[in-house]
Amino acid sequence: MKLVGFCVFMYLLDSSGDFRHKNPRFGGGAHVWDVLATWDGWWYQQIAAHGYHPALVPVHGATGLITLEGNSAAFFPLYPALMRLVSSCTGLGLLGAGLAVSVVASFVAAVGISAVTARISGRRAGLAAAGLWAVWPGSGVEWAGYSESLYIALAVWACHAVMRRRWLTAGLLTCAAGLTRPTATALIAALALAALAELVRQRRTPRLLHENPPVPHRTWRRDAVLRPIAAVLIAPLGLAGYLGWVGYRMGDYGGYFTLQDKAWAHSFDWGRHTVKVFTSLMVGHYDYLYAYPHEDVIGAATVLLALMILPLLFRLRPPLVLTVSTLLTMALVLGSQQIFGNVSRYLLPAFPLLIPCATAMRRLTTPVLCAVLTVAALASGSYAGYVLFEVGIP
Q: What string of pLDDT tens digits covers the 394 residues of the chain?
């Protein structure tokens, strides 16, 4: 499914040819595949090639929202580190290495989404969920020079580990996710609440249920308590460590957030910007920050779709880690001032939203299921790829 949509995306890029007249840093390039490593992808290549240069540099004479110069510190380190490693080991250029990391990570993420869904609704639903993730609005970045696929691969397997009570594995994967995207805040909180629920469950479990544990009872109980606690302590180290390092280098321990606010006008505003976008779109106005009509309509449709699916997810009573991570991811995305059209990709980590849809689709026969996903994949080349990269800003 993903390959179908990707080929349509590449065809649309080539047939329109608009990218040939754009800045190679902003959606342009000499070849169609160059577009995949523009915008944020350009920054990741710079980090992989030259490292970080954190600083809070004022723009001379600037007033209003943007008063600081943007720099590499806004982008988390794990993805560019893997780009550089793959490039060094394979001889690929940084662009090719970045795409290779994203493609491999997308398959790892798809397998994880299938595995998580299968534990709730069965194997057939798991396959449908993986297919739906490949055609979700915003899925154009899954095979691009962006960190989404890597983050989701780590997040979904962290959730899977929590569901299987593999606490140390979950903690380490969450720690790595915290080195990939700031969205890991939602995952860290979800793991912490799941661990707390596990400790409460252990405290309430009668001793009689553990008469024949595989190890002595005292050892079993100690591990059952210490492992969730260790996971909670390990999980935030990646995110906190990077933010702390950036703050130290900038001489301001809130420097990362200052940079996001004053250089990119990205900040948590409790949803005021999202409300402004929706109230403007409903009357055909585009008088809000970072307005890109085509991309924003797709973003608005994605948000409405997510909100409609959410009650269906609750009805399935998924594990706590999935519920919390989904709710907090949506809260972070919808509660922030940012390029609104990007919500379609920012909501990619809310993969549990796919579970109710996949559960319903498992009743379809294989030919019908393939037909539905194929049509969606063909369309995704436009709404999830071309519109995101060329009509808006990914």
A: 789 999 999 999 999 989 999 998 999 989 999 999 999 999 999 999 999 999 999 999 888 889 999 999 999 999 999 999 999 999 999 999 999 999 999 999 999 999 999 999 999 999 999 999 999 999 999 999 999 999 999 999 999 999 999 999 999 999 999 999 999 999 999 999 999 999 988 877 655 445 555 555 566 567 788 999 999 999 999 999 999 999 999 999 999 999 999 999 999 999 999 999 999 999 999 999 999 999 999 999 999 999 999 999 999 999 999 999 999 999 999 999 999 999 999 999 999 999 999 999 999 998 999 999 999 999 999 999 999 999 989 8
SS (H, E, C) 185-219: HHHHHHHHHHHHHHHHHHHHCCHHHHCCCCCCHHH
What count of other Cβ atoms lies within 10 Å of the Cβ of residue 86? 20
Is the entire prediction scored with pTM above 0.85?
yes
Burial of 287 (0-12, 13-18, 19+ CB in 10 A): exposed
Nearest to 192 by CA among 151, 236, 157: 236
End-to-end Cα spacing for the chain: 21
